[in-house]
Amino acid sequence: MKSIILIALIAVAFTARVQERNMAKVQADLAKSTYGKALLHLVELHSMAGGPVQELIDAIEELINDLEEELEELEFNFQVRTNEHNALVVSLEQDIQDAVIDVNNTQDTLDNLLYPRRAQIQSKIDSVVGYQEENRKNYDEAILVREQEHEAFEAQVAELNDATASVDDALALLASLTNPSLLQIRRFQNTLKNIENKIKSRSRMAPMIKALINLASNQNFSNQDVLKNIVDALNEFRNAVVDQINDLTAQEAQDVIDHEAYLEQLDDEYSEFQRQINRATVDLTATNEKIDSMVEFRDQRAADQKQYTAELELENNTYAEETDIYTNTKNEFTRELGVSEQALALVNSVDFSNIQV
Question: Where is the signal peptide (predicted)?
């Protein structure tokens, strides 16, 4: 019996010594942190005041519960933030991709459609303007040629009218000849020479007047048959001159009609060229406006891409910082929770009246 009691006393003593060493270790661990020191002060003050141990236990357990709730809330809030971050990253990456597609598609449309179309329209306008200039050149040349032709016509008619007047003078002179003197014959011959000089450029009339001159030079003007032959020849010549005047006048009238028709044709062509230029100018204006609109859209989408990229970089940096804060806060809460649990274990020990900080 005595040996049993002795063994029990030794066990109790050994247990007490082990508990004392454990309490010392816990106390040393708590003293390593500011939060642990604060709990040790709380335990020391409670011990000095002699308050109920259960109150201290309840206070520490409430503190542990608060820490667990804060840790749970931290986890929840960070998960919500992570979900928001992931959603925002997906959205921004999609916005960036859409902006890149818009920029590339717009530039492709400009390079392969609108810029070539503008160049084509401008080339067409330049060509038609060239046609217009050539048209006006032809118009001015046609007017100049017509004026020259009309002047030539008037000169020819004037010459032929002079020749006709000279023929009339010759006929009048012949009509007055009954017994012509040498002077009158010379005067008649000079009249024929004058007619020849006036129409010498007219190859059609020249042989006829030449024959008359020869006839007048070799004939006896006192012979009435001879005079009649000369008068008949002069009348034939006069009729030929009048016919030529009529032909020239008719041709001039036709030339005027043809000239006016040609000018009208040139005016119609010019008007058609102008209509083509007007239509092309409208197309060019619309194309330029479309180009300006698409360039503005391209530049805006390029700016959007730059903005979305900056927002994505900012979001990633912000989330990285928030992750660091979350990790540090979680670690701190975890440490404080461990310290609180150690303090609770200390309070639940057999004796903590000799605890000092």
Answer: 1-20
